[in-house]
Every structure is written in structure tokens, then in C-alpha cells.
């Protein structure tokens, strides 16, 4: 199995910068690509802040902090991902946008590059079919906030090879995460279970069953959730929630 030394992350938003941070912390070199230079700037600033917090809490040393920062580079050009062993796309949850990104990655990346998608809900098989390397495409679904959450759902498409799966499972562990394999179905397990709950919380609000604070308090204090469903929807992003629910629908 080929050892991966550099990864690419496409999309420097909520998820992309988090994935880049944990990859850099685990010793991987990372190139983060976004269409928006402002998103890259914001992403790098958030990585700096995230690593700074770990330094302040003495979870990493000053040297580890410095090294991790140095491992992250940015670009607005997909072509700069050519040398990566793995590229994770974390652009918006729209099939057309992801399809375009995967097609472009397929063009510019080396023959060995594995293409992973951080999609929350879209079919891996359908996304993989946009490339000429469906055997090297896989779902790698990180949770938000990436530096804190252990889980990564790993999803094979119909054509994903065992080698691709093994490589990604190993890399996930190297990044300090816990891989859990699930199958390619809308929303996988995480969002198939989570999103209907968030949707019901929104219906509770719309129907006046409780105000936002009461709804979140019921789920926090009564069900022991660390965060209420409405606060969680805000953390995820309401646009992403709607896109996932549309896929489930
Ligand atoms: P986001 O809106 O915060 O970031 C998306 C980034 O992608 C933006 O910076 C945007 O400029 C960039 N982008 C858009 N089109 C692009 C393109 N063609 N090329 C390069 N960059 C492009 O979104 P997010 O919340 O980070 O979500 C990203 C993905 O991760 C989605 O598929 C989402 O479903 C998934 N996800 C999100 C969460 C969450 O809680 N937000 C959790 C797990 C998975």
C-alpha cells in the first residue's frame, strides 16, 4: 500500500479548514484549494486559531504548532493538487458543483491519487461516475467541528477498490479519527438519523410547541445531547441542512 505524504483539500470553509488542520497536525503536508481567495485567508486564520488553542492548553508543543502551520499551503488552482496522494473535496453540498470539482480533479491529479468526497448525503457511486477512476473514489465524511469529533464515516461507491478503502481507512486512523464503514444510501447513517430530528425541531418551532431555547433545552437536559438540535443546525449551516434534507427527500 502506497504511503500518502501530501493531501489536498478542496473548499476551505467550515469543513475544509478543519480537515486541513487535523491532517497537518498528523504530519501530512496539505494544499488547500478554494475558488475564493478570501475563503483561503479565513481558512488559514481559523487553522492558526485552532492550533493556537491547542498550544495554549498545552495539548501540542510550540514546535508541533509551528510545524503544523508550515505544512499548510493554499492555492486557487486545482493543478497544484497534481502531486497529492489523496484529495478530499469539501465544497458546497450540490451535486453539480461536486461533479465539476471531481471531473477537474480527475483531469489534473496523478493516476494514483485517491479522490475522497466529504459529501453529507449525495451518492458516492454517482459522484464517482463523474471521473475515469471510480475505483479510486470514496466517501470520507468528517464531522463538524473536525478537530474535536472522532468519527469519519467511510463509504464505498459500487466500484471503490479494496486498496482505496484500506488506504483511506489507514489514513483516517493516522489523522487520529475513528473510521466507521457505512453503505452508500442518502445521508448515510449520520444524516439519515440526525436531519429528521433537526427537521422536527424546526417544525416544533413553526408549530409553536416551544420557543427555540425550550426546544434545545428539552433535548440537552432530557436526552443528554451536548447541544440542542436548533443550535446544531446553526453550527452545521442552514444551507447545508436544507441541501441534505432535499437529498433525503
Ligand atoms: P462551506 O460553505 O463552509 O464551505 C464550502 C467552500 O467551498 C467555500 O469556501 C467555497 O468558496 C468553496 N467552493 C465552492 N465551490 C468551489 C469550487 N468549485 N472549487 C473550490 N472551492 C469551492 O461548506 P461546509 O459546511 O464546509 O461543507 C462542505 C461539505 O462538507 C459539504 O458537502 C457538506 O455537506 C459537508 N459537511 C458539512 C458539515 C457541516 O457541519 N457543515 C458536516 C459534515 C460534512
Which terms summarize this structure?
249 residues; eight-stranded mixed sheet; single chain; alpha/beta; binds nicotinamide-adenine-dinucleotide
Structure report:
- By secondary structure, this protein is α/β, with parallel strands linked by helices.
- It is built from 10 helices and 8 strands.
- The protein has helices spanning 14-25, 37-56, 62-70, 95-108, 124-128, 162-174, 190-206, 212-223, 229-236, 238-248, and strands at 6-10, 29-33, 72-75, 86-89, 114-117, 137-142, 151-156, 178-182.
- The chain is globular.
- Residues 10-16, 33-36, 39, 90-93, 97, 101, 118-120, 141-144, 236-237, 240 line the site of nicotinamide-adenine-dinucleotide.
Explain the layout of strands and helices.
Blueprint: E1 6-10, H1 14-25, E2 29-33, H2 37-56, H3 62-70, E3 72-75, E4 86-89, H4 95-108, E5 114-117, H5 124-128, E6 137-142, E7 151-156, H6 162-174, E8 178-182, H7 190-206, H8 212-223, H9 229-236, H10 238-248
Helix pairs in contact: 1-2, 2-3, 7-9, 7-10
The structure holds nicotinamide-adenine-dinucleotide.
Distance between the termini: 39 Å
| Approximate helicity band | 40-55%
Bound molecules: nicotinamide-adenine-dinucleotide
Q: If helices are DSSP runs of H or I spanning 4 or more residues, what is the number of helices?
A: 10
Strand content: 15-25%
Question: Could you give the order of strands across the largest sheet?
Answer: 3-2-1-4-5-6-7-8
What characteristic shape results from the CA principal axes? Answer: globular
Largest sheet: 8 strands, mixed
> Low-confidence segments, ≥5 residues, pLDDT <50?
none
Our Rg estimate from Cα atoms comes to: 18 Å
What letter string, H or E per element, gives the SSE order? EHEHHEEHEHEEHEHHHH
> How would you state the average pLDDT, rounded?
97
Number of strands: 8
Structural class: alpha/beta
Amino acid at each position: 500500500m502506497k504511503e500518502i505524504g501530501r493531501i489536498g483539500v478542496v473548499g476551505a470553509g467550515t469543513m475544509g479548514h478543519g480537515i486541513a488542520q487535523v491532517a497537518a497536525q498528523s504530519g501530512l503536508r496539505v494544499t488547500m484549494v478554494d475558488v475564493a481567495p478570501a475563503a483561503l485567508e479565513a481558512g488559514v486564520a481559523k487553522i492558526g486559531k485552532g492550533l493556537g488553542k491547542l498550544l495554549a492548553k498545552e495539548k501540542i508543543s510550540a514546535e508541533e504548532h509551528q510545524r503544523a502551520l508550515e505544512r499548510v499551503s493554499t492555492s486557487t488552482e486545482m493543478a497544484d493538487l497534481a502531486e497529492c496522494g489523496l484529495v478530499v473535496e469539501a465544497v458546497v453540498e450540490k451535486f453539480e458543483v461536486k461533479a465539476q470539482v471531481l471531473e477537474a480533479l480527475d483531469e489534473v491529479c496523478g493516476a494514483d491519487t485517491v479522490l475522497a468526497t466529504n459529501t453529507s448525503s449525495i451518492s458516492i457511486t454517482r459522484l464517482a461516475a463523474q471521473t475515469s477512476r471510480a475505483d479510486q473514489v470514496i466517501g470520507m465524511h468528517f464531522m463538524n467541528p473536525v478537530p474535536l469529533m472522532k468519527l469519519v464515516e467511510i463509504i464505498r461507491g459500487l466500484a471503490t477498490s479494496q486498496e482505496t478503502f484500506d488506504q483511506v481507512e489507514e489514513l483516517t486512523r493516522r489523522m487520529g479519527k475513528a473510521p466507521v464503514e457505512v453503505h452508500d444510501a442518502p445521508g448515510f447513517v449520520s444524516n439519515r438519523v440526525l436531519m429528521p430530528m433537526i427537521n422536527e425541531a424546526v417544525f416544533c418551532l413553526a408549530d409553536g410547541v416551544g420557543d427555540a431555547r425550550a426546544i434545545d433545552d428539552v433535548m440537552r437536559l432530557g436526552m443528554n445531547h451536548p447541544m440542542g438540535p436548533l443550535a446544531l443546525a446553526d453550527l452545521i449551516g442552514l444551507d447545508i441542512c436544507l441541501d441534505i434534507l432535499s437529498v433525503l427527500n
